[in-house]
Amino acid sequence: MHINQNASELLIKNQLISEIEVGLLDNNPYISPKFLYDPLGSHLFTAITLLPEYYPTITEQRILDENKIDIAHHVGQGGTLIDLGAGNCEKAKTLFSSIQPDYYVAIDFSTAYLEASLTKLQAENPLIQMEAISTDFSKELTIPRTVPGKRTFFYPGSSLGNFLYDEALRLLGQIKSQVNGGGLLIGIDLMKSDDLLINAYDDPLKITSAFNLNILRSLNKILGSNFAVEKFRHVVKINHDENRVELYLQALEELIISWPGNQRIFKKGDLIHTENSHKYTINSIQNLLYKSGFSSSTIWTDPNKYFAVIYAK
Predict the structure, then answer these.
(1) pLDDT-derived band of residue 9, with 50, 70 and 90 as boundaries?
(2) pLDDT by residue (tens digit) across 231-270?
(3) Nearest alpha-carbon partner for 176 in 312, 75, 288, 270
């Protein structure tokens, strides 16, 4: 196993601080969702995926399991499997028996969590050559030329929904330009009722709330700020105009949040935006894929049409 210390691991701390400051000082303050995935946040998200209310993971895995032979027929066997937002690598692991990749590349922003996951996975699969790349591919996705052969990009969990339309188009275009004769296997969350969405993003155990609030601790470590988690609450909104779920943190009282060289006053009720999760129709995701350069797609869905797995070439 080769651990490649890529660009995001080497990001200068000042660049991260500058990015955070721009968001916090905006008229409508925001924090990039990538900061949700520090080591604790990554573990909390893994816990979220085990919740019965969080339908995306359960439904997507069922689609992958029930259609694994057909998916392998379209994707082909061998080559390189590139796992975007790999996390604990468990989703990609379920593809190994059917796709049988020769090479596996796990890409994520959370370096420590990624490397621990890949070390365990390599021990379980010694015949597959593996590499970890720690990078923020929301900025730019560049796969090293040393990564061999036909490439199948795997982007599960409907994480594409975190991007605005133009951002998603750009990322998909970057993927298409680097498939080397392969394609993209992607999970997409489809439109559904508000009740299902609220339960998925504000679960009764409040694990999603803890996941969202933890971003403030992540910022404290990077920025040296004085966010107090107990002075904010997790808020979920459904934006029907944009077909997305929006996550926020709301100040429970007036606060002065300070960090070296700057500060911001939050009034009671002020919101900090932390994440979007766009929902698609089959037509809208097909159009997005075609606009980004993919010429064909094969689609698998569940009986309720909650979720879709798509292979695009």
Answers:
(1) very low
(2) 999 999 999 999 999 999 999 999 999 999 999 999 999 9
(3) 312
- ∠ CA 82-35-160, nearest 5°, is 45
Count CB neighbours of 258 within 10 A.
15
Alpha carbons 279 and 257: distance in angstroms, whole number: 33
What does the CA dihedral 230, 233, 234, 236 come to, rounded to 10 degrees?
180
Q: Determine the Cα–Cα distance for residues 33 and 201; give it in Å rounded to an integer.
A: 14
How far is residue 196's CA from residue 134's CA, in Å, rounded to a whole number?
Answer: 33
List of domains in the chain: 13-34+196-278 (no CATH), 55-192+279-312 (3.40.50.150)
pLDDT value at 11 more than 60: no
Q: For residue 109, name the pLDDT band (cuts at 50, 70, 90).
A: confident
Report pLDDT for 110: 75
Average pLDDT over every residue of 273-302:
97
Q: Which positions ≥6 away from 242 have C-beta within 8 Å?
A: 276, 278
Q: Count of CB atoms within 10 A of residue 152's CB?
A: 25
Could you tell me the two tokens for 202?
Answer: 């504000």
